[in-house]
Protein 1
Amino acid sequence: MAIIISKNGKGAKRVDRSAFANEDELQQYIYENPESIPLYDIKEDIRLLIVAREFPTQSGPIDAVGIDKEGELYLIETKLYRNADKRHVVAQVLDYGASLWRHYSDFSAFIGELDRQSQKKWNVSLQKKLQDFFGSSEEDVQKQIENFRSNLDEGTFKFVVLMDTLHAQLKDLILFLNQYSKFNLYVAEIEYYKFETFEIMIPKLFGAEVKKDVSVSKPRSEARVWDEESFFSELGQNADEEVLGKMRTIYDFSTKYGADAIEYGINSFKLKVDSKDGTRKTIFFASTTERWNLISEFWKSSPELRKKYADLLSKAVSGIKRDKLDGTYYEIRLDQISQSDIDALLAIFGRMVTEIQETEFSLSL
């Protein structure tokens, strides 16, 4: 196929279709220009931020990982026509998704890798990049991060395969998978043209037009109303008595700040308190996956507070790594921490809340 380019109705020139030299060139183009992926066929106002390239998994690196404003995770793979059987890339991207879901059960490791790549590419934290890119508040970004944490836990990904040419057999496979499975797989065919200093991309998305006929029941986590009873009922299905006791300690500590201080989400609850200036902030959240996530952004309101409480927390429990307290989350597995360590950390959080509520420190970043 060729296209015709002219200026003011004159000088028409034929431009034949070009080709990317290699997959790395296509990957880099997508990384720099995520809007070239026609996700607007899925949702009109969608914006995608490519937060990582060559994201490591035990099955190999994912070409790119993207995030949208709602916290949906996009796993993106590229393949050129002259390469091997294109059906293989479908199995490959699903394998990457399975590996990501299975081996990044430690969310702090997952978010840490995204933050590392954000610092490397943009010289800002992941949280700051999300705020700037989507024009979101800090609270919105926390919800966004919690959403893709939930998506990672449940293996809910959107798979996107980019190709320069899409053949009929692959279309049949995508149609079948999207019709009879719970996940979404899209293939974007990218036509590429070069004219003088311009590059022209004509993307076509396949898979978005498929409407699932299969009856997909909602996960029980989405069907229930979350409160204290349902949270501990869910936790108790897998956790032993020791972990239940540790979680109860964390929950009881949270109740000291009133019923409004506890906010429930899917499989989780969070502790939120107000500072003296009225800014409401999340201190930590806990989940039925037996994890306790410290929100280190809470004490980053000033260099003094940041150093003071990061030092106190790391000194209180020898297993806590001081450098990781400068990240967005610090995740603790309750089966890997003692009851006395939890008590020590909660005592520090109590001091922290009192100090921030009684001082003029601003909690805005």
Note: The chain has a mean pLDDT of 82.
Protein 2
Amino acid sequence: MIELYHSVNSVCAQKVRVALAEKGLEYESHLMTLRGDQFEPAYMKLNPNGVVPTLIHDGRPLIESSVILYYLEEAFPSPPLMPREPHRRAQVRLVNKLIDEYVHNSCTILTFATAFRPWFAGLSGEEIERRLSKSPLKKRAEYKRDVALHGLDSKFAREALEHHEKLLALIEQAGGGWLAGPDFSLADIAALPYVLRLDLLRLSRLWDARPGVAAWYKRVLDRPAVKKEILDRMTSDDHAPFEKLKREPDPWPKVAAMLS
């Protein structure tokens, strides 16, 4: 039996849901709001980091999305989502390493600097601190604190964009093909949510001059598992933070200036 604690807009949870769907695995869903329920004692026993996703297989919890992806591949090897050739397997791990070490926190920074920044609107520095103090991941709390106060003027924003540029450059190298060889793999699953997030943040112009990224992105979005587990899951409430950006000043001019 598989259980999954997740939220619709979590990029890490999106990866795991797509992998489960690609493998045809059913799971019991525990949908979380991430408005404090991730810090409740019962959940913290499952995931001491207070984040999603947490996957439970046969009663044993697993945390960290990239670890869960590799676990699913080993526990349920058919259909395969890892190449057989060692160099291509290393490419899958390289994509996940880039995301885990650099892109994921950068995604948090850009999201909280724009779409999720209104969550802190009108709060004092002390009130923001109280909201963030519950997280055991103090570095991520530091990022959120700074972007809540400064938006895209945060000292962390430029570097966050540069890390996303590295991911887009890696995708462009594939020329519109899959990221680790001729077959769809965990590399594509890992990268997708971060490119989708850029799109939702009105930053798709980052790949205007990267036709390979545009072609790859279209191919991934056309996959039934992606439609089922990401696109179709997003309700109007899930879209709301991103829809508000259409009524806010366009973030692109500031982003373009930072990259120029």
Note: Residues 86-259 form a domain with the Glutathione S-transferase Yfyf (Class Pi); Chain A, domain 2 fold (CATH 1.20.1050.10).
